[in-house]
Amino acid sequence: MKIGMNMSSNTNKFKFNILTASVLASLSVGSLPAFAEEEKIETIEVTGIRGSLIESMNKKRFSGNVSDSITAVDIGKLPDATIADSLQRITGIQITREGGEGTKVNIRGNENVTTTLNGEQMITAGAITKLEADFADIPSTMVSGIDVLKSTQAKHLVSGLAGTIDLQTTRPLSLDEGWTALGKVEATRGSLGGEVDPSVSAFVGYNLDTRLGFTLNIAKSESYLADYTNGSQGGEPGRYGGWSFMATEANNFVQDDIDVSGDGDTNDVFYSFQGHQAANRFIERDRTGINSSLQYQITDELQLTAEMFYTKLDEYAMANAITASQAWSSETGWFTPLEATGYHNVTHVDGEPVLNEGEFYTLQSALYQARVVKAQSFTRADEKEAFNSNLQLDYVGDSLSLTLRWVHGEAAADETNSVVDSFVTDGSSIGDTYHGPGKTFISHVNPWGYQGTEAYLPDGTVVEGAYTQIPVGIAYSGGKQHWAFPDMMLDDGTTEAFGSNLNRYSAKSSNLYGIYTNADLDVIRLDGKYELDLSIPVLDSFTSIEFGARSAERTVSKQGWYGGVARTNQYGDAFLARWKDTATDAPETVESYIAPISFTELNEKGMIKAIDDFHGTTGLGTLYFVDPEVMKDPIAWHNEIYGTHVLTPDAANVYEVIETVTSAYAQLNIETDIAGMLLIGNFGLRYVETEFDVTQSEALQGTVANFNGQDFLLGPGMQKPVGNTLRTVNKYNNALPALNLALNLNPDMVLRFSYTETISTHDTDNIGGGLNVNRTKTCEQTTDTGETVFCATSGTLFGNPYLEPQQNDNMELSFEWYFSESGMFNVGAFRNKGNVKEVDVTLMLDNIPDSDGVVRGFDIETGTYTGVVPIQAKVNVPAKGDWSDTGIEMGYQQGFDFLPGIWSGFGITANYTYSPGESDLTDYYGQKLPSVGQSKTQSNIAIWYEKDGLQARIAQNKRSKMFQTLKNDGAYKFAYFTAPTTYIDASVSYEVSDLVTLSLQGTNLTEEHQENYHQWESNIDGQVYAERRLTLGVQVKM
Fold first, then answer.
1. How many whole angstroms separate alpha carbon 70 and alpha carbon 118?
2. Alpha carbon of residue 1027 to chain centroid
3. Which of 278, 563, 793, 861 lies 20 to 30 Å from 985, alpha-carbon distance?
4. Residue 583 — φ and ψ, nearest 5°?
5. How confident is the model over 245-283, as pLDDT tens digits?
């Protein structure tokens, strides 16, 4: 699909290159980790669960810094369904889930985590602009091991503030000589989706006399994941909350000065959502992964490595949601409370909490007066591809070793969204009409829809002449959402259940939009190590010096767009409209340009779906929706229903960021004796120089834009496209020391200390993004020609190119006791201090115009014009805080091989993390909040068994409430949390022979769901329901 002329895209070009590279690499070179690793003090041959845990334990034991590891039970077989699911078993790791699958990862509550591949930076298509690790697009069978680095050495030139996750792939010269081959086939079925999802993977490798080798790993899987949601409208449960207002007894109900709470006064305030929804939602994923490697031992000193790592994810998120809302009216008090909880009424003035008169109430159950009831259909189509390659030459001499690497990466993520709002009501309660020139009335927007009844006071008194509404009961209790729709009286005196008649529905409004994101990475790096042999006292403690330099350039380009349907008004002027809405006016002539579209008509085309499955709710019968499946190609569907669209650029989401990083390091490695105890460690300094070359977009001025050689008026919902561009160059440098010490108290006990200083870059959206403004028509303004005005109410300034890097100082002290071959106990304390912090601020701007160019500053809650619009923005400020409170990590692992008989096959792995870190954010009461994505406590426990070819494991992951974000709503602050969760997974496998293994795995066995709330657990904002998934598999070795 061609985008408007003043917006370019290289997506198609990238796909051609990436596919070509994948095919060529599969035939020749592939994925191979670095040859010049640190020496391995102990070699363990991995077999089964026990062997995997032993190898992971030994990697931790002999690491030069604080780290944890996961080693695959076999080639391409991590112990969980996804990479993120495996990572959550490590102390300090916390994950988020989507569709029940682990996707994003943080370390000790900090999402600033860098992902590397075999020790060097990689690009993942799931996190092109972001910092956080996102493993949704990487098949777990492509990874043989994972290292989590919680402290850095000076030589770790690529790292995050919280740590680094290094994915590792299998090397051909590490295989047994000759051929190695295996294949695996799996079938997975979810308890709610009911479909069987296939997965196949294959690995082949050849090692010729430890001189020449190659590997090829291919993975393909499909999944259909239940992801039901309910709660407030406008939010994304588990990420951020829905639209909300404050409703005062004095001003915001159907009449002013109403004693809603019944306490004899009118000074109380209610927390009010704009709407409530219940959604049948599924996520469909199709993953492909290829990694291949070539390794050649040129001489005894020289080794050549070539590797590639390719992933592709096609994903469709599809939802059908029934919603009841107050349609952005000034009557934010659109309910009669049935169950409510009262609190002190606390607002914030100049950052300080202030106690006000009256009570503040949240609702658990109410009878709502819905101005609109609609059936919303949503499809998000994602295409994500990433290609990472490494060409590496290693030299190992007697004293000197050198590694030269060229790393190249490309990634593309194309996201296209289609939203259709179908009215079940007729639209009369909000004054929406289908009209001709001059707004001549033709019909209501949904002439077949239900009409409402007159609004009433909380005591039931009807208020004549106010507005009409549909009474809807909505309550939250017992982990579910409960609905009660009325039976509707028809003109012939009969009744029908609300929403039960397909012919009552109309596709009233739709929206098409998307984002194309691309990234390129090139790295040249030289690392060296020189072994020292000094006989001078004190200096003889220095065993080697490591040094290196790195130059990297990363380019991120983002191109957001809106789909504008091409129409002409009554004057014959061509215009583009984002909102395909029956009630919306054509520019200048103000007639409707979208005729009512009945479900009867769409049903004849096979586009309507009946749904009665709203898991997590009660009271909802069969309802009807535009089928999201027919919108899997959103652009094609909108062209079919509405006609030709032009994809027009959104200036707030069009930018290019070029990040150039030059770095160098020097590191001394030490080994000495202190009172008969061996001290091993390293200390060094890395220097990092960073330059950002940022090109931002400025919106075009005026109401006319040219696309593909034709002038168009910018109609309803259209954002002004790119006019001028603004280039900014920001440059800074940092010197970062690192110290890691390990004191061997005896052969089995290690005491570690680390002190490191780290920096990290930003999400490129926060550097290059522009201004996005929210506008609504509820201000009831019109132009001189009668055209409806959309008034600016709020907005977000996404990008600030002058942001300085985030900086942290990290310190850790830990103790490790290796009391048997498979037994370990460890405990550690960690602290950190932020030196620069990124904070959200609210700017009250007086230069944000409404759709007609006039600055008004409409306040929805008060219905007044303030002249200013609140805009959310990000700035850097120096951190004034001291070291954080001390966090604690504890771990225990033991195989019970000392027990007799069957009991010798059992073992246990357990860990606990306490992360009390605080951010500078404060909640409703002014109390400090944790970092985003942080739970204060998390624990894991796994009981496993391995004996006589049988392997089994059951694991529990438990975490306390997780802080997601802070919502500023006027003078009020509300912390948004996810309630505590407990997930239980299990697996069992049996080796039928040396060549064949059968397996069965279950995830989320208890069908745990996520409950999200604002400030108080009873103030439910949204709930997410995933399914139990069972996987049956067979693996064959050859």
1. 14
2. 19
3. 278
4. -90, -10
5. 999 999 999 999 999 999 999 999 999 999 999 999 999
Count the Cβ atoms, other than its own, within 10 Å of residue 948: 9
Which tokens go with 736? 């970062």
Contacts of 32 (CB under 8 A, 6+ apart): 118, 169, 171, 172, 215, 293, 294, 295, 305, 306, 307, 390, 392
Closest CA to 141 of 233, 66, 198, 75: 75
* Closest C-alpha to 738, from 757, 723, 751, 760: 757
Q: How many residues does the chain have?
A: 1038
Both structure tokens of 545: 């010096």
Query: How many other C-beta atoms can be found within 10 angstroms of the C-beta atom of residue 222?
Result: 16
pLDDT for the residue numbered 22: 39
CA distance 811 to 808: 10
Give exposure, 757-775, as e/b (b: 16+ Cβ within 10 Å): bbbbbbbbbbbbbbbbbeb
- Per the CB < 8 A criterion, the answer to whether 329 and 51 are in contact is no
Number of Cβ atoms within 10 Å of the Cβ of 470: 22
Distance CA 876, CA 693 (A): 18
- pLDDT at residue 4, as a whole number: 45
Write out residues in the chain with pLDDT < 70, as ranges.
1-47, 73-81, 131-133, 701-702, 836-838, 875-882
Q: Three-state SS for 491?
A: coil
Q: How far is CA 332 from the centre of its chain?
A: 31
CA 1034 – CA 948 distance, rounded (Å): 18
Nearest to 205 by CA among 176, 179, 232, 238: 179
Is the CB of residue 962 less than 8 Å from the CB of residue 934? yes
- Strand, coil or helix: what is 636? helix
Nearby residues of 264 by Cβ (< 8 Å), 6 or more positions away: none
Point out which residues pair with 168 in neighbouring strands: 145
Backbone angles phi, psi at 61, to 5 degrees: -65, -40
Stretch (H or E) spanning 693: strand 677-699
Closest listed residue to residue 131, CA positions, set 161, 100, 103, 153: 161
Residue 82 pLDDT: 75
Cβ 1007 vs Cβ 191: under 8 Å? yes
* Token representation of residue 514: 């998307």
In the prediction, which pLDDT does 877 show? 62
- CA 19, 23, 24 angle in degrees (round to 5)? 115
Q: Which regions of 541-579 does DSSP assign to beta strands (E)?
A: 542-568, 574-577
Q: Which two tokens stand for residue 843?
A: 């700017």
Q: What is the CA radius of gyration of the chain?
A: 30
The pTM of this model reads: 0.87
- Among residues 506, 486, 489, the alpha carbon closest in space to that of 443 is found at 506
Q: State the residue for tokens 């799996």.
A: 186
841 Cβ contact list (under 8 Å, min separation 6): 872, 873, 874, 875
CA geometry: angle at 589 spanning 588 and 590, to 5°?
95
DSSP state of 805: P
Mean pLDDT of the chain: 89
Residue 418, SS3?
Answer: strand
DSSP bridge pairs for 783? none
| CA proximity to 261, closest of 355, 340, 369 | 340
Question: Is 642 in a helix, a strand, or coil?
Answer: helix
Check: CB of residue 966 under 8 Å from CB of residue 1015. no
User: In whole angstroms, what is the distance from residue 954 CA to residue 31 CA?
Assistant: 32
What residue ranges in 191-239 does DSSP mark as E strands? 196-208, 212-226, 228-232
Q: Tell me whether strands 480-484 and 617-618 are parallel, antiparallel or unpaired.
A: parallel
Residue type, 231: G
Query: What's phi and psi for 1004, nearest 5 deg?
Result: 50, 55
Report the SS3 class of residue 582: coil
In angstroms, the CA 128 to CA 115 distance is: 12
The three-class DSSP label of residue 706 is strand
